[in-house]
Amino acid sequence: MNDLSNYRKSYEKSELLETTIPEDPINLFNRWFHEVEDFGGVDEVNAMTVSTIGLDGFPKSRVVLLKKFSEEGFIFYTNYNSEKGKAIQNNPHVCLSFFWPNSERQVIIKGIATKTSESVSDGYFDTRPDGSKLGAIVSHQSEVIPSRTFLEDNLKELEKEFEGKAIPRPKHWGGFLVAPVEVEFWQGRPNRLHDRIRYTAQDDYSWKIERLSS
């Protein structure tokens, strides 16, 4: 057995107080995101864990990249026919989480996912490098394949097919917008007395702010 009981650190880099936070979570998320980015030490600040309830009834988490956020919510892109895509379309209640160890911060977002419009998906797809566009077409994400060579050979065929041509977005690929209903901000503090502030959406479009015990 690998005993990890002595893995410990003291969290002392910042604090999270009700007197210094905005009335809505998107403004605070924006502040934290750019503070983490400016602080450095994180390769992909927009990397987040997406947790879904699968068709088999089990939760599953995986890391994807956040591509846009606004007052409406958080957008990422995927294959709609993938395991995660099917799970979300079956049960749109999802959880997003960010962990930024350089700033000793976490953000946990509960929300409801819906497909973005085709125009939004088209707009983002057009910004992707050609290799990424072809990858979205060639990969039947989450399906069993015979080998790595199978994928690479299919990609070579597509490269020949689309040489010198515009690459259209496949209909099975696009964005999900996660509209938050609850956002929790976690700031590490000494002696495990961490700061936890939770925003909960209200019917009048305001946010209820509460402090949680660490």
TrEMBL record:
The keyword Oxidoreductase applies. One of its GO terms (biological process) is pyridoxine biosynthetic process. Keywords: Flavoprotein, FMN, Oxidoreductase, Pyridoxine biosynthesis. It holds the Pfam family PNPOx_N. Substrate binds at residues 8-11, 67, 124, 128, 132, 192-194. Residues 42-158 form the Pyridoxamine 5'-phosphate oxidase N-terminal domain. SUPFAM superfamilies: FMN-binding split barrel. It comes from the Bacteria. Binds 1 FMN per subunit. It catalyses: pyridoxamine 5'-phosphate + O2 + H2O = pyridoxal 5'-phosphate + H2O2 + NH4(+); pyridoxine 5'-phosphate + O2 = pyridoxal 5'-phosphate + H2O2. Residues 173-213 form the Pyridoxine 5'-phosphate oxidase dimerisation C-terminal domain. FMN binds at residues 62-67, 77-78, 84, 106, 141-142, 186, 196. NCBIfam families: pdxH, PRK05679.1. Homodimer. Belongs to the pyridoxamine 5'-phosphate oxidase family. This is Pyridoxine/pyridoxamine 5'-phosphate oxidase. It comes from Flavobacterium frigoritolerans. The gene is pdxH.
